[in-house]
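Encode chain A's predicted structure.
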Amino acid sequence: MDEISNLSYEAAYQELEALVARMESGDLPLEESVKLYERGQRLSAHCQALLENAELKIKLVDDV
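Encoded structure for chain A:
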């Protein structure tokens, strides 16, 4: 696993937003766009996992 797993939700989301903005500019070669897309997918999955973990913790606290 790369360094994505060490990112906080906020840092991962901020990087994801920056990647989307770069890709939307349309000025990137295809190969770089694909690499950014793949990293974006990993960042998105990481953010989703962090959100799910936070939701689980909140549910556990509410059930106590």
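The helical segments are 9-24, 30-63.
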